[in-house]
Inverse folding.
């Protein structure tokens, strides 16, 4: 019988993508797709993105070693409701289970920065999870125009996406199928 040793990172770090520019989730997905190409396992937990048909979800369905789970409602949040708090709490609990299982090499916490900004989850709870993650698990956090200063301080890689020009404002073009969703 042949046993294949699972590839593992030597050390898992914390990456953080935030800012007013486009590309935060796309950057995290790109990192995930790169990793599975090298034999790693990836899990993406999406905060505040419930039951929405993003194109990347269809791609992930057909990709081995890449899983995703959404938490939230399809509605944009202007004023948080009870359901938003409940879904964010479930997402964080689920994310902790996935991270601590040590089954996945890269765990993406998509839009967690926005969930923190809306006070749907507490930054201290997120930091506790980050600080106790298994050594070989890489965490990628995305979300919003701002990221909590404590998350910025803790991150090993911090990238701010800055919009220089966007067709939303310059040409009044809305989100496009296959490009933004």
């Amino acid at each position: 019988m042949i046993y294949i040793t699972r590839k593992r990172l030597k050390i898992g770090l914390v990456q953080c993508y935030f800012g007013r520019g486009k590309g935060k989730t796309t950057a995290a997905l790109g990192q995930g797709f790169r990793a599975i190409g090298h034999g790693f396992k990836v899990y993406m937990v999406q905060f505040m993105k419930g039951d929405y048909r993003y194109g990347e979800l269809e791609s992930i369905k057909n990709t081995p070693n890449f899983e995703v789970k959404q938490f939230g409602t399809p509605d944009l949040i202007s004023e948080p409701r009870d359901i938003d708090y409940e879904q964010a709490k479930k997402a964080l609990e689920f994310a902790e289970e996935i991270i601590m299982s040590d089954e996945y090499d890269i765990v993406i916490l998509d839009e967690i920065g926005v969930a923190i900004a809306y006070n749907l989850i507490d930054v201290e709870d997120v930091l506790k999870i980050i600080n106790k993650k298994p050594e070989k698990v890489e965490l990628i956090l995305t979300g919003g125009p701002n990221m909590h200063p404590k998350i910025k301080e803790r991150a090993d890689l911090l990238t701010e996406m800055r919009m220089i020009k966007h067709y939303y404002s310059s040409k009044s073009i809305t989100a496009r199928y296959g490009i933004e969703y």
Q: What stands out?
A: DSSP finds seven helices and six strands in the chain.
